[in-house]
Write the C-alpha cells for this entry.
Amino acid sequence: MSFLMGIFLIGRVTFGIMFRAFMLSLLFRFGFSNDVPASFVFGDSLVDVGNNNYIVSLAKANHDPFGIDFGMPTGRFSNGKTVVDVINQKLGLDFSPPYLAPSTTGSTVLKGVNYASGAGGILNNSGEIFGGRINFDAQIDNFANTREEIISLIGAPEALNLFKKALFTVALGSNDFLDNYLTPLFSIPERLLVSPESFVATLISRLRLQLTVILLKKKALFQSCFYFVS
Ligand SMILES: *[C@@H]1O[C@H](CO)[C@@H](O)[C@H](O)[C@H]1NC(C)=O
C-alpha cells in the first residue's frame, strides 16, 4: 500500500468515527434523552452481551481476558461495556439482557432485549466457520417473539407506544465480509463466481429488506431511532 493510500484510508476511517460520534451527539442533544423506555439491540460480536454463551459456537467470549473490567467474563467480546451498554446508561436504562438468557422473560423484556450474536451477519451463511451464531434474519424472528410477549404483557396499544419510543440499534455487517466473502481459502470459489460489486449489492438489498421488516414490526415508520455502527 502506498503512503498516500495509507493516509487516505486513515482519513476515511477517522472521518467515519467522527461522523458517528457527531450523529450520536446530535441524537442525545435533540433526541430522546429522557424518554426512551427500552433498547432493542441487533448485531454481531460488537454488541453481543452473552447470547453466544447459550449456543454451540467457536465465537465465544465466556473466558479470560474478556470482561476483566467487570471482574468476570460476561459473553461480551470486550474488556467491559459495549457501546450500546454505554448508550443505555446515558439514557437511564439498564443493560439490555441477552435474548437467550433464561431470565430474559416477563417484565424484564419491557426495557429491551439484546439479540446480537458474535460471528453473526446480514446473510444466513456468514460466520459459518464459527459454527453456531444467530444471523440477522433469526434475530428478527427472535424480536418477533419478544414483541408478542410484550403485547401479551401490556396490550397492543401500549406495546406500539413502547416500540415507537424505544431505541433500536443494528450493529453488524463486518462478518459478511471477514467471515464470508473474504474468508481465506473457503471463499475462493465464491469470489471467482461473484464480483465484489454484486456481492455488496446483494448485502444491501438484503439489509434493506431486514430493516423494513423491523420497521413494520415496530409500526412506527416515521419515529424510528435507528443508527448503524458497523
Ligand atoms: C435465513 O434463515 C432464516 C431462519 O433463520 C429463514 O427464515 C430465511 O428464509 C433464510 N433466508 C434465506 C435467504 O435463506
